[in-house]
Amino acid sequence: MRIDVLSIFPSYFDGLTLSLLGKARSAGILDLTVRDLRDWTSDRHRTVDDTPYGGGAGMVMKPEPWALALDELAARPDDAAHAGDAEQNRPTIIFPSPAGEVFTQATARDLSSREHLIFGCGRYEGIDERVFEYAAALGEVRLISLGDYVLNGGEVATMAMIEAIGRLIPGVVGNPESLVEESHEDGLLEYPSYTKPSTWRERPVPEVLLSGNHAAIAAWRRDQQIERTRTRRPDLLPGDDS
Ligand SMILES: CN1CCN(Cc2ccc(Cn3ccc4ccc(-c5n[nH]c(N)c5C#N)cc43)cc2)CC1
Question: Which residues take part in binding S-adenosyl-L-methionine (predicted)?
């Protein structure tokens, strides 16, 4: 998979050279490039924002640098490998946005199957709306929100999405088994985990986990998942219409 990130704060993504994603990049499983949007400006001040038409607080990101950057990234030579299949060749262009669809594990799984993702990290009060229309001619455009709270830009959301997507790419996580029993993978929150010592500061590990009875352990874990989901996230339970 290829991932391109556009941001005016590219160093935000230095953390992606670490740990599992860093190893995946070194192993060639993940081709990730972070670019500074200002590289597509032409004035001395490398301007990317301006005042909003119609008034209002703050600044809006100018469309032209985005269009020039997306033109270049959406047509990178790697796509020539799929020159024959136009649809396969088109990237998925993701703009983090408080006005977007909410990012879930299902979104991560969907996006992890794509060939080429481009993340456009906005700042200020957002990006000129015409950029999203322009980008639709280059690929599938998705406005995606990390959740119902306001961040200062798209970088933190992009980091979270890349981590959630990246760990689903075959070969990134050493033991694919660990991707199965996770919160949200089966629609429920995960069961509690314990390790040595079996009693820690007078707190014992639940007896069933020491029993060796795998059927009883599986049943206890499922019960824990259901109980945790019922008390913490009833909205995830089937039949909940909240
Ligand atoms: C006219 N007014 C109407 C109210 N808006 C509100 C507003 C819009 C953006 C920002 C800052 N910002 C800029 C780019 C950008 C991308 C993602 C996110 C983001 N926030 N929360 C998530 N889950 C996010 C994600 N993912 C925030 C971003 C701040 C405040 C401004 C304009």
Answer: 122, 146-151
C-alpha to C-alpha distance for 4 and 30, rounded to whole angstroms: 11
- pTM, 2 dp: 0.92
Q: How many residues are there in the chain? A: 242
117 lines ligand 1 (CB under 6 A): no
Q: Is 122 annotated as a binding residue?
A: yes
Looking at ligand 1, which residue's alpha carbon is closest to its atom 9? 125
* 3-class SS of residue 147: coil
What fold, for 181-236? Answer: Trp Operon Repressor; Chain A (1.10.1270)
Which among 73, 68, 168, 163 has a CA at the least distance from the CA of 113?
A: 168
Q: What residues are paired with 96 via a beta bridge? A: 144
Look up the CATH number of domain 2-176. Answer: 3.40.1280.10
Which tokens hold the place of 86? Answer: 């136009």
CA separation, residue 197 to residues 207, 209, 211, 212, 239 (Å): 13, 13, 15, 16, 39
**154 carries a ligand binding annotation:** no
pLDDT digits (tens, 9 = 90+) for 34-46: 999 999 999 999 9
What number is the ipTM of this complex?
0.97
Domain with CATH 3.40.1280.10 in the chain: 2-176
Q: Which residue stretches of 16-175 are H helix?
A: 19-26, 63-74, 86-89, 105-112, 130-135, 155-166
Scanning 113-154, the segments in alpha helix (DSSP H) are 130-135
Ligand 1 atom with least separation from CA of 151: 20
